[in-house]
Design goal:
Elements: H1 6-27, H2 32-47, H3 52-71, H4 75-80, H5 82-107, H6 113-122, H7 128-137, H8 144-171, H9 179-210, H10 216-234, H11 239-251, H12 256-282, H13 285-289, H14 292-316, H15 321-330, H16 336-347, H17 353-389
């Protein structure tokens, strides 16, 4: 009989594998996250089953990762970049969606228009957690490009939900709430975030004047992060959005660096590595490879669409060519959001198992190429600066 404590051994194995794979990846001058995803692919290919506990650890990992990203964001700079982020996000939604739709209709004309539209929306979903971790590893998260990637990804997420709701409403009017209900819930969520943020900043300022709260503030920060992550899911926005805004709230207090340091240690040792290994474990390589046709369209046109759409948007808002490329590449990865959207299409009988497998292939390839590409774009830019300086 299997021991009820077997989960401890599994968790230990995943943490050890993530640590070793991360070290090997860094030795090969690649981000640690790349090694962690690859080891997840290996473990998931029959060596280990992904249990519910590992799923929950992974969820906490991505929530903490985005919470720390929020803590490390300059709110003033983020607000000032709102217009630029919106233009970048718009390009990153429209261009890949149009390219994938047109590509599907031209290359595989037997595909239904609704299917092509649905896959177009699948191609718009950015999973910024991969880029966030890579930018943190190379010390570029707080650059203007890093701030733009984060801002555009949040807008991308919200607009993607609205587009998906519109399409599902058109295909199956009884399957989902009206577009007005969805927009109302999203607006209500941001009102809640604003209210919580205003209250937290005010209360902490009063407490700082009377008490020493250095030890207790970490607990309150984690509690508010988890509550906002939960509420964002309840309001129809991804949990990572709520976690990111929780980080933004605490970034406006004097405890910003202490919270980022302490939560970063907890997350980095226990939760975030499990998240990246879990991404790899979720992907069935053989199933993904069986859908090379549609998968290739999603990968090539979807990635080119993000790089061109976000890159042109960045260029229009004052970034140079090298910085625009960095922003475009940072918006390339797809992960859980794309799979969730495709899975909804599968449940509604709009997409087939082959389309689902193609989405998984896109997730696999974009997840694996982004860390190295993103690191290369920053390294290339630094080299160009050195040459120009000489």
């Amino acid at each position: 009989m299997e021991s009820k404590y077997m989960f401890l051994l599994q968790l230990a194995a995943i943490l050890l594998a993530a640590h070793v794979a991360g070290l090997i990846s860094e030795r090969l001058k690649q981000p640690a996250v790349l090694g962690q995803i690859i080891i997840g692919l290996i473990l998931g290919a029959g060596l280990m089953e992904k249990t519910e506990l590992i799923n929950q650890f992974a969820e906490i990992g991505v929530v903490f990762l985005m919470f720390i990203a929020g803590l490390e964001t300059d709110v003033k700079e983020l607000l000032e970049s709102g217009k630029s982020s919106s233009i970048i996000a718009f390009g990153g939604i429209v261009v890949p969606a149009v390219l994938v739709f047109v590509g599907m209709m031209l290359i595989i004309p037997s595909h239904d228009k609704t299917v092509a539209l649905f896959l177009g929306i699948v191609a718009t979903a950015t999973s910024v957690s991969i880029s966030v971790q890579t930018l943190r590893e190379i010390g570029k998260l707080r650059t203007k490009q890093g701030v733009m990637i984060l801002g555009a990804a949040i807008i991308d997420d919200v607009v993607g939900i609205v587009l998906l709701t519109l399409l599902v409403g058109m295909v199956s009017p009884n399957a989902t709430s009206s577009i007005f209900v969805v927009i109302f819930k999203i607006v209500a969520f941001f009102v809640v975030v604003y209210g919580v943020g205003f209250a937290v900043v005010k209360i902490l300022k009063k407490m700082d004047a009377k008490f020493i709260v250095e030890d207790k503030v970490i607990i309150w920060a984690i509690v508010i992060c988890l509550i906002l992550a939960f509420l964002s899911e309840e309001f129809g926005v991804a949990a990572i959005t709520g976690a990111y805004f929780a980080g933004l709230i605490f970034s406006m207090t004097k405890h910003q660096h202490q919270i980022a340091h302490e939560v970063g240690k907890i997350s980095g040792f226990m939760f975030t590595p499990v998240f990246f290994v879990g991404i790899g474990m979720d992907i069935n390589i053989m199933e993904a490879l069986s859908a090379m046709g549609v998968g290739s369209i999603l990968i090539v046109l979807g990635s080119i669409g993000k790089i061109i759409g976000c890159g042109v948007g960045a260029k229009l808002t004052g970034f140079n060519s090298a910085e625009s490329l960095q922003i475009g590449v940072g918006m390339v990865p797809r992960a859980e959001v794309a799979i969730i959207v495709a899975n909804l299409g599968l449940k509604m009988s709009i997409l087939t198992q082959k389309d689902m497998a193609a989405t998984i292939l896109m997730v696999l390839v974009t997840t694996l190429i982004t860390p190295s590409l993103l690191k290369w774009t920053f390294h290339r830019n630094e080299k160009l600066h050195e040459i120009n300086a000489d």
